[in-house]
Amino acid sequence: MRQLTLTEQARRAQLVNVTIDLIAIHGYASCSLQRIADAAGITKAAVIYHFASKNAVVRSAYEHVIASLTAHMQERIALAASPSDAVDAYVTSLMGYMAAHPSHVRVITESLGGHHDTGIEDSPHSAARWKPLAAMIQAAVDDGGYRSDVDSRTLALMLNGAIDALVAESLTDAAFDLATATTAVLTMLHRTALKQPRG
Fold first, then answer.
1. Cβ neighbour number for residue 159 with a 10 Å cutoff
2. What is the DSSP string of 36-96?
3. Do residues 170 and 99 make contact, with C-beta atoms less than 8 angstroms apart?
4. Quick check: 53 and 137 in contact, CB under 8 A?
5. Contact 141/152 with Cβ under 8 angstroms?
6. What does the pLDDT look like over 101-118, one tens digit per residue?
7. Among 22, 60, 91, 194, which is most buried by a count of CB atoms within 10 Å?
8. What is the dihedral sign for C-alpha 123, 28, 71, 155?
């Protein structure tokens, strides 16, 4: 595969960002190649030069969002002073990113909603999602920060499920405060897992 020129890279990045905005506003079903072209100020043929299909550009948009979210979280988790602090950082960085980037949340939910054939194979319920968090929780158990009877898989599923529900609520109710919800999730986590709950 030939290397893209800087101009081509810039155009693809523009199309990805346009697609993210369009999905956030109109949803996947109404995000057509023509609408992407119109928003980018180019022809549909020019879009197809870079992306062979609607799903190709949607997949690129999804991959961009996931890469951005992952980098954001990894940076903050790496600064944690202990395994239990790392789990806190997972919660706060994930929910903080979602609160700051609602358009990215829309791309994720529309791409993985199950009612669209996007060609994206990820699933919100896949083991690839809960296993990294479970490993962090197990490290906190092994380190002694969490109680020895904490089941890492169960707690990982509980945390992700709670976060999913709260983020979904914020999408339907603009007044719903994710910052307050984040504090509630952390309180639940600490009371469930810490040997000596904070506060």
1. 24
2. HHHHHTS-HHHHHHH-SSHHHHHHHHHHHHHHHHHHHHHHHHTT-SSHHHHHHHHHHHHHH
3. yes
4. no
5. yes
6. 999 999 998 887 655 666
7. 22
8. negative
pTM: 0.89
pLDDT at 199 over 60: no
Report which residue type is found at 73.
M
B/e letters for 1-28, b = 16+ CB within 10 Å, e = fewer, are: eeeeeeeeeebbeebbebbbbbbbeeeb
Contacts of 67 (CB under 8 A, 6+ apart): none
CB 160 within 8 A of CB 168: no
Outline where DSSP puts E strands in the chain.
none
Minimal CA–CA distance to 24: which of 127, 113, 101? 101
d(CA 194, CA 59): 39
Contacts of 185 (CB under 8 A, 6+ apart): 91, 95, 159, 162, 163, 166
For 101-126, where are the alpha helices, taking DSSP H only?
Answer: 102-112
- Going by C-alpha positions, the residue among 193, 111, 187, 188 that lies closest to residue 152 is 193
The CA distance from 194 to 145, in Å, is: 6
Phi and psi angles of residue 118, each rounded to the nearest 5 degrees, phi first? -85, -20
CA end-to-end span of the chain: 56
Asked if 83 contacts 136 with a C-beta cutoff of 8 angstroms, the reply is: yes
Q: Residue type for 117, please?
A: D
- The Cα–Cα gap between 11 and 58 comes to 15
